[in-house]
Amino acid sequence: MSRQLVRVDGRQLHVSNLEKVLFPEVSFTKAQVIDYYVRIAPVLLPHLSGRPVTFSRWPDGVEGQAFFEKNSARHAPDWVRKVTVPSPGSSRGRETLDMVILETVADLAWAANLAALELHVPQWQVGSRLQPALPDLLVLDLDPGPDAGILECCEVADRLREWLVDDGLDPVVKTSGSKGMQVYAPIRVTDREHPSRYAKALAQQLSAETPDRVVWRMEKVLRPGKVLIDWSQNNPAKTTVAPYSLRARPDATVSTPIGWDEVEAVLDGADPGALRFRTEDVLARVEDYGDLFDIAGAQRAVLPSA
């Protein structure tokens, strides 16, 4: 195993196997993964701020075995922020998890060196008492079934945008980096279950209006030709892939913020394939447009009752 000491953002970090190819289809190496995360840090880090990160790790690349890792603080350098949070019920009897919060460029380089290709975060931040605060984001995850794709997701995203704006919210949208899309809105709530209730009611309403195009239940038999609005991602125990995160897909795509004008362009006949982005595309887009997923600049509104 090749191993070397590098300096990143004022921190010393051991990195290994930089030449290892993690995405064989496009010959994308671990060194390139680290380089991407270092370069995208200025727009990625604000979206990780205060949010414990779940890693999707692929030590042998995207054609090998993978695992999710929440309890990652035990092998983090002492300069990475650590936080102990209550464990969701699915975590094998553990009452707490020792997680990390990525705050610096060096933190991202450390995670990338672990082959943590994907970074997933909850819709809440750690509060002043080092406990999960109330959710501050609503997410509607659009997952196309067989015989549906990005075009159909754009149709549903556009309808969701109209609904959310009518409810006083300020939505933003990104690709999942895989098959679908995700619509977010910054919110204020007093009840941590409120986003799930609201999202479920919204998904049910759109499904009732167009049952041939939208489904709110996850059963596979219901999904061919339709888009699932996965409202369950608002469960405080769940996480969603972060904006600007790589995805463990053969062509090294990225979950990429897009403009509503790009959604409208697809609806007007533009190629849906244009909404599939790799790392160099994303870095160029940030250079040209800045952060299209500017939650901090969006209006944070009270979530209407469900």
From TrEMBL:
DNA ligase D polymerase domain sequence ranges: 29-293
Lineage: Bacteria, Bacillati, Actinomycetota, Actinomycetes, Geodermatophilales
Protein name: DNA polymerase LigD, polymerase domain protein
Origin species: Geodermatophilus obscurus (strain ATCC 25078 / DSM 43160 / JCM 3152 / CCUG 61914 / KCC A-0152 / KCTC 9177 / NBRC 13315 / NRRL B-3577 / G-20)
InterPro entries: LigD_pol_dom, NHEJ_LigD
Pfam family, one: LigD_Prim-Pol
